[in-house]
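Researcher: Structure prediction, please.
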Amino acid sequence: MGLLAGLAAFSGTGAATLNGDELATISAATRSLPGMFELARHIDGHFLPYYLFMHLWVKAGMAELWLRLPSAVAIGVAAWLLADLGRRLHSVRAGVIAAGVFAILPSVSYYGAFARSYAFAAAAVVFAFWSLHRAIERPVLRRWVAYGVAVALVCSTHLFAVLVLPAQLLLLRRAHAVRMLAALAVGSVPAAVLGLIGYGERHAISWIPERGPEVWLKFPKMAAGTTWLGVVLFAMALAGAALLFRQAHGRAGHHGPDGLQGRERFHGPDGLQDREGLRGRNGLRGRDASHGRGGLDGPGGRVWAAVLVGWLVLPPVLLLLVSWLVTPAYVDRYLFVTAPALSLLAGLAVACLPRFHVVAGVAVVALGCALAIPEHVEVREENGRFENIPWALRVIKAEPDDGIVYGQSPLRAGFDYYADSLMPVDVLRSGDSPNPDGFGYPERSDVSAALEGRERVWVVWRGTKQSGLEGDSIDRVGEVKEAGFELSMAKHSGDLPGLTVALFTRR
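Model: Predicted structure follows.
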């Protein structure tokens, strides 16, 4: 299932063109190490671990497929760990269904074909829950070390991925409290460091508006990548959590005719069987059949049901609190780490059915595919990342001595990446390297002087036509008009925010 999920994500890597965030990854990763650390002092410091990895990765190539391949691999790893976590908590069928649901989510296809760290964060979060289950199941030192490493990876892949960790505190027990808290404390050191850096750079996310609780209504769509499938899976997840809690409650304290409690016995397809007994009709035995120590049988199972719900719902709640108490920071993509929890709870809900698990699992995955087809097609289109630079290049019909002005300085990085023919003269550019403290480029400020002697100038900006032509939100447009030019033509790429390409000619 991990391979299938990775392939599903990788299938979209070469279709949609790179957007501004991905171009920022290229800009950061292609700098020298001192240049990367200088950038991290001013912006995107919490992405530094990912940028360091990509700094090594891009030495082998800069093609879209290559840049996005690590994210597709991370999705495959997340799906594999999710399948095994489902097996540990309930059964093989639960893990397979969970991984299957995860693989068909449009959000997984999007972030699995995205040259940013969000797929890494999702994989690290699943690894953290998987390793914590193993450590509680068999509390030896090396497993607690693995858990500490997993927490450190969560903290290093994306700052707000740490919002899943409070759910794990529900598993804190006296028997392993010291080791668990020690692993959490050591693993959280990167979060403390990157959190301080991020707080000092909060100006970099000043574009994020303040949000209210109404954003939670969109949360199922965000996690799944599509509205109807998200709503269905979210309802299944909540129902699944209730079923798991009830199932675990029913097994806790259950005594069979031979005096064994539910902790030592399980309900197999052939009736009540010993935990280490013979294979049932499903061919499982031991931990696979009985859900294992630390699984969903008994009191521990009730706790794990609550933990999985916390994994799903705590991050959006806590992120909104951060937005209210510190600085506005509620952005949907920061919550992609909840998608594995949504899939796992949905898979466990199907696995809890009294019969027809396989049929129900296949039906859920098939229905999910059917509901998500439009979104899967959309994320694989050329404009799937809503910044279609190749489209803009096709619109620009450059003539000799044409100039070009960028409404946002970082946009030129995308045109540098994709341009393969004659381009208008970049009249404002005054340096080939991006600014050391950001992703923009050194520019001349005297637009009128830069356009002197030119009859036509192309202006490109991120946003709608109205955002540049009405009002003063795009300063460069107004400066071009003041230099003696008037609008001749304007086109928008179609989806918001999109790109606008406008041609101005001298009056």
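Model: Residues 389-506 form one domain.
Researcher: Thanks, that helps.
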